[in-house]
Amino acid sequence: MQFLIITGMSGAGKSHCVKFFEDIGYYCVDNLPPSLIPTFATLSRQSGKMERIALIVDIRGGDMFQELFPSLEQLTVLEIPYRILYLDANDVVLIKRFKETRRMHPLAPDGRVQDGISREREILSPVRARADVILDTSNMQPRQLREEIIKLFVEGRTHSGLTVNIRSFGFKYGIPLDTDMVFDVRFIPNPFYIEALKPLTGLDPAVAEYVMAQQESRTFLDKLMDMVTFLLPYYIKEGKSQLVIAIGCTGGKHRSVTMACKLAGLLESMDATVVLEHRDIDRDGKASGQ
């Protein structure tokens, strides 16, 4: 029996997750009180009718949410294996989503959304630290979230227990805070200064071809791949559940995007579990080179 706990920030996409997991054959239960998890899991195992189960547990349960960790300990005692999927997004995106849907934050029904988000992050931080998979949906459309779920949870894909999150970004917007390794590709000749390539991104073949035509790009990718493949078995051995690799250029649209895509493709060809994100690809890059 595959038992999955889905949790995370309000507004990060859990409602979409329920639909996507149902599509791939999971029996989903939304907002189950955490204290009932061991009983539900035991009954599910005894019935033998539900092989894949996803439970959405979050802050909507109020004080009952504090029962999550004791319930997870009970699952361990009952020898029922489980995984935790944590959905996250940055504060700016979460606030925007609440405003667009005109919803109130569950922890700030009469106050500022930002206050509710801050309090929720504090409460959920221990759960996030224990998550097996963390998905940052800040720059994901529902379609992309669905693709990542399929990539991570559909049977037939190997899963080592370690998810490699590869993230392109622009240095002028700041380094991602949750990064394990940061690589700077601003040494690569910049497509931004070529008129035909300037309005494009690293997702366009013309930009990717230009970047990878440079000898330094190919050498860097070879050395980066060599280091990452050397490190992965040791991270897995130590029980690390997620490795975040950030690759940055000036604006996060050309060089970093190309290199992130190339690295992700090489790792996926080795059956690694990869999540690819482009944090700044849609930002306005008129102010300086990309």
Tell me how many strands there are.
Answer: 9
Q: Tell me the name of the CATH homologous superfamily of the largest domain.
A: P-loop containing nucleotide triphosphate hydrolases
Low-confidence stretches: none
- What's the CATH class of the largest domain, please? Alpha Beta
Structural class: alpha/beta
Please give the count of helices: 9
Basic shape: globular
Give the CA-CA distance, first to last residue.
47 Å
Work out the radius of gyration.
21 Å
**Would you list the SSEs in sequence order as H and E?**
EHEHEHEHHEHEEHHEHE
Q: Beta fraction of the residues?
A: 15-25%
CATH topology assignment of the largest domain: Rossmann fold
Number of domains: 2
Helix percent reads 40-55%
Q: Residue-averaged pLDDT, rounded?
A: 87
Q: What is the topology, as strand order, of the major beta sheet?
A: 2-3-1-4-5
- CATH A-level architecture of the largest domain: 3-Layer(aba) Sandwich
Major β-sheet, in short?
5 strands, parallel
Task: Give your account of this protein's structure.
The protein has 290 residues and is α/β, with parallel strands linked by helices. It folds into two domains: 2-153, P-loop containing nucleotide triphosphate hydrolases (Rossmann fold, 3-Layer(aba) Sandwich), CATH 3.40.50.300; 163-278, no CATH class. The protein has helices at 14-23, 37-47, 68-77, 91-101, 113-130, 142-153, 205-212, 215-237, 255-268, and strands at 2-8, 27-30, 52-56, 83-88, 133-136, 163-170, 181-184, 242-249, 273-278. α2 (37-47) links the parallel β2 (27-30) and β3 (52-56). α8 (215-237) packs across α9 (255-268). The longest helix has 23 residues, at 215-237. The protein is globular and about 60 Å long. The model has no long low-confidence stretch (mean pLDDT 87).
